[in-house]
Amino acid sequence: MRFWHPSEVGLATRNKLADLGRGTRLFLQLMRLTGPALRRFSLVRDQIHFLGNHSLAIIAVSGLFVGFVLGLQGYYILQRYGSSEALGLMVALSLVRELGPVITALLFAGRAGTSLTAEIGLMKAGEQLSAMEMMAVDPVLRILAPRFWGGVIAMPLLAAVFNSVGIIGGWVVGVMMIGVDPGAFWSQMQGGVDVWKDVGNGVLKSFVFGVTVTFIALLQGFEAHPTPEGVSRATTRTVVMASLAVLALDFVLTAMMFSI
User: Fold this and answer.
1) Which residue in 59, 173, 217, 221 has the most C-beta neighbors within 10 A?
2) H-state helical runs in the chain
3) Containing domain of residue 167, as a range?
4) Could you list the mean pLDDT of each consecutive 10-residue stretch along the chain, which spans 260 residues?
């Protein structure tokens, strides 16, 4: 067994604190550049299209199959208590409160987050960011800020698509395949889902997850070593860190929302 020398522990701690400091500075810089970035909304719009449109297929297909599973599992659970008419309510609440924002964020991290990290990392490896600085162009304003806000805006939209397709999937299984009364399916859903407490909390989660996943992806790409191996490691770190951050934040946000 290898024991860590105190100097190695101190060096590792100092490096982690330095990484935390650089990440905090970059986040504050992105917040400071919010106004200038949004004034050039064409750049943000292009990133919304790039991140959202390219992730739409996997989000929609995943939402459909999650809705299928919820409809099937939910029916057999509710049938035990004679409450199969509440299937629509169970599917809707499961999606808008929890599964929609979380699964969308995890898929977004795997699809769009890795793309952002690889793109920024390759630009750094090709010295494009350094060339922009030599031309007095701020790479954070021109490259990172539009991608950051594009991801933040795209994430709630993708979560809404996931929820909508998932509800349709639950309706297909519950009503068309199993035979639940369609009127009860929709009326229970409409009567039991609160716009502010349920849908609003889901939108808030999606926004927080969008900020978290997009920032982690950009930070890992911006701080990646300018080599192919460094970019690949940064891409892997993006998926791991973003997924863990989403799951941890989901617990914190859920605890806060139920305590209010």
Assistant:
1) 217
2) 6-32, 34-39, 41-48, 54-79, 87-93, 100-108, 114-125, 128-134, 139, 145-171, 182-192, 201-222, 228-259
3) 19-255
4) 62 78 87 88 90 90 94 89 86 92 94 91 85 85 92 94 94 90 88 86 94 94 87 92 94 84
